[in-house]
């Protein structure tokens, strides 16, 4: 395998970039380290002559840049997303420094697409954007002046990713095929739908339930097969909720319906229900 091939699986995602020169500077930083996939979320101005000028020869990256409407679109198909942020967050995500985070990303990029997500120049990533990533990265800097230019931050991380190629890195914690971002999002939507229909979740007062579930899945790093199992269970529960309850037969000796019976594991039914809910 080409030793640089994992870098082809790394997306650099810039969210709501306000200055087109930073887009060009980021493209130049990427090209010097062998990265080539740039994704933009609602940039203020792109394409732009200033971006081309600052790219200084990295025009091929600008020409194939993917412009997205939101972070969900930018992360679609990835199995791991790292939020680069300087602010501490009230989240339960794993936090890595730049070097450790690069090793983590490359270990997954050897098999599947991953993303490195940067926020706006002024305020960085929103808490909602960070919550959609699985890990958080910090670039160590002088605490008295830790603000990095966006293109400079991309350069630091691009360098660390290239250096991580020569390291064995951590062994991915999951043995099977990792679930993609969009598969996790569909699972969360399915969970929310069933929670509302069952009465467990009040949509008028959700109390951050879905945020907590999102954090749980970020920590556990679900496999594709595990997502399918959970979707199958949810599908079976939905089907049971659509069926009228059986008539009680009193003490005639007939078996009483077991609470929660709809969630008993039935492999064949789970697979069928999973297909129906996709």
From TrEMBL:
Keywords: Cytoplasm, Methyltransferase, S-adenosyl-L-methionine, Transferase, tRNA processing. SUPFAM superfamilies: alpha/beta knot. Residues 244-278 are annotated as: Disordered. It comes from the Bacteria. Residues 10-159 form the tRNA/rRNA methyltransferase SpoU type domain. Residues 263-278 have a biased composition (Basic and acidic residues). It is found in: Cytoplasm. GO terms for biological process: tRNA nucleoside ribose methylation. Its main location: cytoplasm. GO terms for cellular component: cytosol. It holds the Pfam family SpoU_methylase. Belongs to the class IV-like SAM-binding methyltransferase superfamily. RNA methyltransferase TrmH family. This is tRNA (cytidine/uridine-2'-O-)-methyltransferase TrmJ. The lineage of its organism: Bacteria, Pseudomonadati, Pseudomonadota, Betaproteobacteria, Nitrosomonadales. The gene is trmJ.
């Amino acid at each position: 395998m080409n030793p640089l091939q994992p870098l082809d699986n790394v997306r650099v995602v810039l969210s709501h970039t306000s200055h087109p020169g930073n887009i060009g500077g980021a493209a130049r930083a990427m090209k010097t380290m062998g990265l080539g996939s740039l994704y933009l979320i609602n940039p203020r101005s792109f394409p732009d002559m200033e971006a081309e000028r600052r790219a200084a020869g990295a025009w091929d990256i600008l020409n194939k840049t993917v412009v997205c409407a939101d972070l969900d679109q930018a992360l679609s198909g990835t199995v791991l997303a790292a939020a680069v942020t300087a602010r501490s967050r009230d989240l339960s995500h794993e936090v890595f420094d730049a070097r450790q985070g690069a090793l983590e990303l490359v270990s997954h990029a050897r098999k599947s697409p991953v993303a490195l997500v940067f926020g706006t120049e002024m305020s960085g990533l929103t808490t909602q954007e960070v919550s959609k990533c699985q890990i958080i990265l910090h670039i160590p800097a002088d605490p008295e002046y830790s603000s990095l230019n966006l293109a400079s931050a991309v350069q630091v991380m691009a360098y660390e990713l290239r250096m991580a190629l020569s390291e064995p890195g951590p062994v991915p914690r999951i043995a099977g095929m990792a679930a993609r971002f969009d598969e996790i999002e569909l699972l969360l939507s399915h969970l929310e739908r069933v929670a509302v229909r069952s009465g467990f979740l009040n949509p008028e007062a959700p109390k951050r339930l879905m945020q907590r579930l999102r954090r749980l899945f970020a920590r556990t790093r679900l496999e594709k097969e595990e997502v399918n199992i959970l979707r199958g269970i949810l599908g079976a529960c939905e089907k049971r909720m659509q069926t009228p309850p059986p008539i009680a037969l009193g003490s005639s000796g007939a078996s009483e319906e077991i609470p929660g019976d709809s969630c008993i594991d039935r492999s064949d039914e789970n697979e069928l229900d999973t297909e129906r809910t996709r």
